[in-house]
Description:
single chain, alpha/beta, Rossmann fold, Luciferase, domain 3, GMP Synthetase, Chain A, domain 3, 3 domains, 5-stranded parallel sheet, 15 helices, 29% helix, 26% strand, globular, disordered C terminus
Amino acid sequence: MLHLLPRAVDIAARRFPEREAVRCSGAFLTYAELASRANGLAQVLRYQGLKRGDRVGIFMNKSLDSAVAMHGIMKAGGAYVPLDPFAPTSRVAFMIRDCGIRHLVTTDLKLDQTALLAEATGELSHLIGATNRDGYECLAWDDVRGATAADPPDIELTEQDLAYILYTSGSTGTPKGIVHTHRSGLSFAVWAAETYGLSCEDRISNHAPLHFDLSTFDFFAAAVAAAATVIVPEAISKLPASLSGWIERERISVWYSVPFALMQLLERGGLQDRDLSSLRWVLFAGEVFPTKHLRRVMAALPHARFSNLYGPTETNVCTFYHVPPLPPGLEEAIPIGKPCANVESLIVDGENAPVKPGETGELLIRGGVVMRGYWGRPDLNERGFFRRRVFNDQYEDVFYRTGDLVRLIPDGNLKYLGRKDRQIKTRGYRVELDEVEAALLSFPGVEEAAAFPVPDGQGSCLIEAAVTAKAGSAPTGPAVLNHVSGKLPSYAVPVKVEVLASFPRTSTGKIDRRKLQERAGAGSEGEPKQQVSVIAEGA
């Protein structure tokens, strides 16, 4: 019975033991090898004292071993927490402290950073994949690989147990942990495998980093179908020409990424010189795909079908839209589609009353794909869910508030209209502008700060900021930028910080961010902007 995420690997190992399960840089693991190594890691974790529901960090670059880590942690009854290996140490340390990580799966390549994390947190006690370090129980990867096992630990787990926690930007200046169970992960994976007809013959790209929710499709939906997950090597993921060659060589059949990666492939990937006939589905998510660019990508890959997947990290994916041929001249953004199987949508106004068809409201989602809640944040859980009383008030339906504004259009699809709050998407990554401002305000000479999105000319947005100085201080834009670079992931760092004598104000005395945004747009025409690098791991 498929009720736990790693059970998909076990079933595939029985049916197709010699088929490739995961592949990276020419090396691969079969499903039999992946199951055996994951079982061995699970046994090791249990021997080290891991209990059901304990959180285990994964702090390493993407590799065959990172796939073993994900499934091995879940087989041991733990929840894996992917930690961005390129993020500032302070940010990673916060996550370790926040969810009480004691076991960290890493590599010797990260030993210096791991030592800083251990010193900064005081939480870590077990390092897996690392050679001996004083004060910690360590086990090298060679030893982990040698600890293969025919069976996972004998633990009573259900679909309601924790499976993984993904951290995203938080409005208070600190990241927030989104808790998913086996049920929510599998609800999405099974739906995706069925909807896109995945089979053991498919080769699915893994372009997203593990801490980005797009990666759950690459690993979990692939395992459900016994398909091969082919990890994009980080060395080529930022080079569109090399990336298109990799797609050709690896005979990728299903591609999944943010729109920006596809736009880069179109502009600089030399698609016309590649044989990409293996591609049958091109999936994208994370932000709006400008129709004029989408039309060009579809024309460059006429043999492939395209699908727009929508959903915040809290819901995995909750709506989808198979893109039909786009007529010339159409510039209106495509819909986000209809709810996935086992998902109900509700559109409400500011009083939580359902709106009429065609009217704008906030999108609420309930169903199997929805997270359990935010880790250690009852305040966010209280605000993040809407409870609808049903059956004469005997029960309640629980919906997640996406914060996205939508309307139902005549053909039955949902149209995305924007954010209700100050959360934005930049190259597929979700960023709270309040978190950016908190980092700016932490600079000693800054009095006030404002962050705002600006168009990047490619259908997405970048972040710019302005600050005012404290009396007696003279901060410079470059100095403030250098400061926040050590506090935020790269995709959240403003491309520009301007120091102003004073801020424009609204009639109520608030900073007029709209005027700042308009000023930035008017003053930067023809001026190239720094690109945010998220085509590989995004941070």
